[in-house]
Amino acid sequence: MKNIVVFASGSGSNFQSIIDAVQNGSLHAHIAGLISNKSGIKALERAEKHGIPTLVISETEFHEYEVYERQLLLQLENWNTDLIALAGYLRKIPASIIKAFENRILNIHPSLLPKYGGKGFYGINVHKAVLEAKETMSGCSIHVVSEEYDKGPILEQATVDVLASDTPEELAARVLQQEHLIYPKVIETYLNTLNEN
Ligand code: GRF
Predict the structure, then answer these.
(1) With pLDDT > 70 as the criterion, what percentage of the chain qualifies?
(2) Buried-state track 139-165, b at ≥16 Cβ within 10 A, e below 16
(3) I need a surface site. Which of 20, 47, 186, 192 has the fewest CB within 10 A?
Protein backbone atom coordinates (compact mmCIF):
# COMPACT_ATOMS: atom_id res chain seq x y z
CA MET A 1 0.00 0.00 0.00
CA LYS A 2 1.39 3.38 -1.01
CA ASN A 3 1.49 6.28 1.44
CA ILE A 4 -0.07 9.59 0.45
CA VAL A 5 0.56 12.83 2.29
CA VAL A 6 -1.89 15.66 1.61
CA PHE A 7 -0.97 19.36 1.93
CA ALA A 8 -3.86 21.78 2.55
CA SER A 9 -4.32 25.35 3.76
CA GLY A 10 -8.08 25.68 3.97
CA SER A 11 -11.36 23.84 3.95
CA GLY A 12 -9.89 20.61 2.65
CA SER A 13 -12.92 19.47 0.69
CA ASN A 14 -10.54 17.84 -1.81
CA PHE A 15 -8.74 16.21 1.11
CA GLN A 16 -12.15 14.89 2.17
CA SER A 17 -12.78 13.44 -1.28
CA ILE A 18 -9.47 11.57 -0.97
CA ILE A 19 -10.41 10.30 2.50
CA ASP A 20 -13.81 9.16 1.16
CA ALA A 21 -12.25 7.36 -1.79
CA VAL A 22 -9.86 5.50 0.51
CA GLN A 23 -12.73 4.56 2.79
CA ASN A 24 -14.98 3.33 -0.02
CA GLY A 25 -12.15 1.29 -1.50
CA SER A 26 -11.85 3.12 -4.83
CA LEU A 27 -8.44 4.54 -3.88
CA HIS A 28 -5.97 1.91 -2.75
CA ALA A 29 -3.66 3.93 -0.59
CA HIS A 30 -2.96 4.90 2.97
CA ILE A 31 -3.23 8.57 3.96
CA ALA A 32 -0.13 8.84 6.11
CA GLY A 33 -0.58 12.47 7.10
CA LEU A 34 -1.81 15.97 6.48
CA ILE A 35 0.51 18.94 6.36
CA SER A 36 -0.79 22.45 6.78
CA ASN A 37 0.90 25.83 7.00
CA LYS A 38 -1.65 27.12 9.50
CA SER A 39 -3.62 25.94 12.49
CA GLY A 40 -7.37 26.18 13.02
CA ILE A 41 -8.38 25.21 9.50
CA LYS A 42 -11.19 22.83 8.57
CA ALA A 43 -8.79 20.41 6.84
CA LEU A 44 -7.11 19.75 10.22
CA GLU A 45 -10.51 19.01 11.78
CA ARG A 46 -11.18 16.51 9.01
CA ALA A 47 -7.84 14.81 9.66
CA GLU A 48 -8.51 14.61 13.37
CA LYS A 49 -11.96 13.15 12.80
CA HIS A 50 -10.43 10.38 10.69
CA GLY A 51 -7.41 9.73 12.90
CA ILE A 52 -4.96 11.03 10.29
CA PRO A 53 -1.69 12.41 11.76
CA THR A 54 -1.05 16.10 11.12
CA LEU A 55 1.81 18.54 11.05
CA VAL A 56 1.36 22.30 11.11
CA ILE A 57 4.51 23.91 9.82
CA SER A 58 5.25 27.29 8.32
CA GLU A 59 8.53 28.75 7.12
CA THR A 60 7.67 31.89 9.10
CA GLU A 61 8.46 30.04 12.35
CA PHE A 62 12.04 29.39 11.26
CA HIS A 63 15.01 31.73 11.20
CA GLU A 64 16.58 29.74 8.42
CA TYR A 65 14.67 28.45 5.44
CA GLU A 66 16.95 25.37 5.25
CA VAL A 67 15.93 24.33 8.75
CA TYR A 68 12.28 24.52 7.69
CA GLU A 69 13.00 22.46 4.56
CA ARG A 70 14.86 19.82 6.57
CA GLN A 71 12.05 19.58 9.09
CA LEU A 72 9.49 19.15 6.35
CA LEU A 73 11.57 16.54 4.57
CA LEU A 74 12.15 14.64 7.80
CA GLN A 75 8.42 14.39 8.43
CA LEU A 76 7.76 13.22 4.88
CA GLU A 77 10.45 10.57 5.31
CA ASN A 78 9.05 9.50 8.68
CA TRP A 79 5.69 8.96 7.04
CA ASN A 80 7.34 6.91 4.25
CA THR A 81 5.71 9.21 1.73
CA ASP A 82 5.25 7.80 -1.75
CA LEU A 83 3.09 10.59 -3.14
CA ILE A 84 2.27 14.14 -2.09
CA ALA A 85 -1.15 15.49 -3.07
CA LEU A 86 -1.49 19.26 -2.85
CA ALA A 87 -5.10 20.15 -2.15
CA GLY A 88 -5.53 23.88 -1.80
CA TYR A 89 -2.06 24.43 -0.34
CA LEU A 90 -1.24 28.11 -0.61
CA ARG A 91 2.48 28.04 0.08
CA LYS A 92 5.36 27.42 -2.24
CA ILE A 93 6.77 23.92 -2.00
CA PRO A 94 10.53 24.22 -1.35
CA ALA A 95 12.67 23.34 -4.37
CA SER A 96 14.52 20.71 -2.32
CA ILE A 97 11.23 18.90 -1.67
CA ILE A 98 10.26 19.06 -5.35
CA LYS A 99 13.65 17.54 -6.15
CA ALA A 100 13.42 14.83 -3.47
CA PHE A 101 9.92 13.94 -4.69
CA GLU A 102 10.45 14.42 -8.40
CA ASN A 103 7.29 13.36 -10.29
CA ARG A 104 5.71 12.39 -6.98
CA ILE A 105 3.85 15.60 -6.18
CA LEU A 106 0.43 16.29 -7.70
CA ASN A 107 -1.61 19.48 -7.56
CA ILE A 108 -5.19 20.35 -8.37
CA HIS A 109 -5.93 23.77 -9.85
CA PRO A 110 -9.40 25.24 -10.46
CA SER A 111 -8.94 26.26 -14.10
CA LEU A 112 -8.22 24.71 -17.45
CA LEU A 113 -4.45 25.14 -17.35
CA PRO A 114 -2.42 26.65 -18.90
CA LYS A 115 -5.13 29.30 -18.74
CA TYR A 116 -5.54 31.14 -15.43
CA GLY A 117 -2.53 29.54 -13.79
CA GLY A 118 0.59 30.97 -12.22
CA LYS A 119 1.14 33.91 -9.92
CA GLY A 120 -2.01 35.48 -8.46
CA PHE A 121 -4.34 32.82 -9.81
CA TYR A 122 -5.60 31.09 -6.71
CA GLY A 123 -8.95 30.70 -4.98
CA ILE A 124 -11.79 32.94 -6.08
CA ASN A 125 -9.42 35.12 -8.20
CA VAL A 126 -9.30 32.36 -10.79
CA HIS A 127 -13.07 32.28 -11.21
CA LYS A 128 -13.35 36.08 -11.23
CA ALA A 129 -10.80 36.21 -14.07
CA VAL A 130 -12.65 33.51 -16.02
CA LEU A 131 -15.92 35.45 -15.73
CA GLU A 132 -14.29 38.77 -16.59
CA ALA A 133 -12.83 37.21 -19.75
CA LYS A 134 -16.34 35.95 -20.63
CA GLU A 135 -15.13 32.39 -21.07
CA THR A 136 -17.88 29.92 -21.90
CA MET A 137 -16.01 27.00 -20.42
CA SER A 138 -13.92 26.46 -17.32
CA GLY A 139 -12.89 23.49 -15.23
CA CYS A 140 -10.06 22.04 -13.23
CA SER A 141 -6.68 20.49 -13.92
CA ILE A 142 -4.50 18.00 -12.12
CA HIS A 143 -0.83 18.25 -12.87
CA VAL A 144 2.53 17.01 -11.73
CA VAL A 145 4.32 19.68 -9.71
CA SER A 146 7.50 21.12 -11.16
CA GLU A 147 9.52 24.09 -9.96
CA GLU A 148 7.44 26.52 -12.00
CA TYR A 149 4.03 27.35 -10.55
CA ASP A 150 1.12 25.49 -12.23
CA LYS A 151 3.39 24.45 -15.10
CA GLY A 152 4.09 20.71 -14.67
CA PRO A 153 2.64 18.08 -17.03
CA ILE A 154 -1.17 17.96 -16.98
CA LEU A 155 -2.60 14.54 -16.13
CA GLU A 156 -6.31 15.24 -16.33
CA GLN A 157 -8.86 18.01 -16.79
CA ALA A 158 -12.61 18.22 -16.32
CA THR A 159 -14.72 20.95 -17.86
CA VAL A 160 -17.84 22.81 -16.77
CA ASP A 161 -19.99 25.30 -18.64
CA VAL A 162 -19.74 28.90 -17.54
CA LEU A 163 -23.20 30.45 -17.31
CA ALA A 164 -23.82 34.10 -18.12
CA SER A 165 -25.51 34.45 -14.74
CA ASP A 166 -22.65 32.88 -12.75
CA THR A 167 -21.13 34.60 -9.76
CA PRO A 168 -17.49 33.64 -9.03
CA GLU A 169 -18.76 31.61 -6.05
CA GLU A 170 -21.29 29.69 -8.15
CA LEU A 171 -18.67 28.88 -10.75
CA ALA A 172 -16.20 27.86 -8.03
CA ALA A 173 -18.77 25.47 -6.55
CA ARG A 174 -19.46 23.86 -9.93
CA VAL A 175 -15.74 23.43 -10.61
CA LEU A 176 -15.18 22.05 -7.09
CA GLN A 177 -17.74 19.29 -7.71
CA GLN A 178 -15.63 18.14 -10.64
CA GLU A 179 -12.44 18.39 -8.58
CA HIS A 180 -13.88 15.99 -6.03
CA LEU A 181 -14.75 13.51 -8.76
CA ILE A 182 -11.46 13.47 -10.61
CA TYR A 183 -8.72 13.98 -7.99
CA PRO A 184 -9.08 10.61 -6.19
CA LYS A 185 -9.33 8.81 -9.56
CA VAL A 186 -6.21 10.46 -10.93
CA ILE A 187 -4.32 9.68 -7.72
CA GLU A 188 -5.33 6.01 -7.99
CA THR A 189 -4.20 5.81 -11.63
CA TYR A 190 -0.99 7.69 -10.89
CA LEU A 191 -0.12 5.44 -7.96
CA ASN A 192 -0.50 2.46 -10.25
CA THR A 193 2.03 3.94 -12.66
CA LEU A 194 4.40 4.45 -9.70
CA ASN A 195 3.95 0.78 -8.81
CA GLU A 196 5.15 -0.19 -12.27
CA ASN A 197 8.41 1.74 -11.86
C1 GRF B 1 -9.59 24.04 -4.88
O2 GRF B 1 -10.35 24.83 -5.73
C3 GRF B 1 -8.30 23.62 -5.57
O4 GRF B 1 -8.43 23.48 -6.95
C5 GRF B 1 -7.39 24.77 -5.26
O6 GRF B 1 -7.74 25.17 -3.96
C7 GRF B 1 -9.08 24.82 -3.68
C8 GRF B 1 -9.07 24.00 -2.42
O9 GRF B 1 -10.36 23.73 -1.96
N10 GRF B 1 -6.00 24.41 -5.41
P11 GRF B 1 -10.55 22.73 -0.75
O12 GRF B 1 -9.72 23.26 0.42
O13 GRF B 1 -10.10 21.37 -1.19
O14 GRF B 1 -12.01 22.77 -0.45
Answers:
(1) 98
(2) bbbbbbbeeebbebebbbbbebebeee
(3) 192
Cβ(41) – ligand 1 distance below 6 Å: no
Q: What is the pTM of this model?
A: 0.96
Give me the mean pLDDT over the 9-36 stretch.
98
* Alpha-carbon span 83 to 5, nearest angstrom: 6
10 C-beta closer than 6 A to ligand 1 = yes
Report the residue among 7, 36, 38, 108 best suited for mutation to probe ligand 1: largest number of ligand atoms under 8 A from its CB. Answer: 108
Closest-CA residue, ligand 1 atom 2, reads 110
Residue from 11, 14, 115, 138 whose mutation best tests the ligand 1 pocket (most atoms within 8 A of CB): 14
The per-residue pLDDT for range 84-104, each reduced to its tens digit, is 999 999 999 999 999 999 999
**129-153 pLDDT, tens per residue?**
999 999 999 999 999 999 887 789 9
Confidence at residue 195, expressed as pLDDT on a 0 to 100 scale: 67
* Separation between Cα atoms, residue 152 and residue 133, nearest integer Å: 24
> Ligand 1: which residue has its CA nearest to atom 8?
88
Q: DSSP assignment of 124-159, as one string?
A: HHHHHHHHHTT-SEEEEEEEE--SSTT-SPEEEEEE
